[in-house]
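All the exercises in this workshop are built on plain-text protein records. There is nothing in a record beyond a sequence line and a structure line. A learned vocabulary of local backbone shapes supplies the integers on the structure line. The question running through the whole workshop is how a given chain folds. Here is such a record, shown just as it appears in the course material:

***
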Amino acid sequence: MAHPLGQPGDWLMAVAPGNSSAKADGGRLWRWLGTLGVLLLFAGGGVWGVIALRDPSVLPLKLVRIDGELHNLDRRSLEQAVGGAMEGNFFTVDLDRVRAAALKLAWVDQVTVRRIWPGTLKMWVEEQRPLARWGTSQLVNGRGGVFTPEPEALKAELPSLAGPEGQAAEMVARYQRMGRRFAVLELVIDRLVMDGRGAWTVGFKQGLELKLGQEDTEARVERFVRLYPRLEQAENRRVKRVDMRYANGVAVLWGEAS
């Protein structure tokens, strides 16, 4: 007659898998706890590392190196300006803040700032290169960037550009294009004016004034380039002003030959 619980061996075999599963779960728990402990240890070390690296006394900046050709920019003023913006250590110093501090100086055009391990900050500074005077108290560079230098700088022998606010870039572009065209006539622009209505006037170092008006100014420049050599052939007379604002002709003001 069969035993109600089966054979003793069968019963033992049925109980054994349950014990093995409990041991496996216990092993996984200990491994998980061990992994968690390692992660917490690394996390704690990372937090400590971040705190330590934010300490200005850890890896402090020891040298600020400024490179670039500086002619009008005072190096001491530049050092003072960026010195006030440098806070923190090698890792935490705000490079954008340092760059912004340098750009506040009138003669600074462009700046790049980078770190050099282990404690140097390197700055490359490009100085403003004035192309002309802009209005009465400013200068403008070849890209149309306007800046305000010390008054002494305004005494430099530079051409003069004058126009509505916000039109500096357009005027610089026009000045450069016109300058190349007038060079074939050996005329050098000394003054370029755009008035509030958009009318253009060109003054040359040779004493000649050219009125171009508001419309078709490029075409009028080309007409003047073709016409001027014939005007120069006039005997005992000197051209003082040429007005190109007429549709079918020009008006010429003559002066005595020098």
Q: What stands out?
A: The chain has five helices and twelve strands.
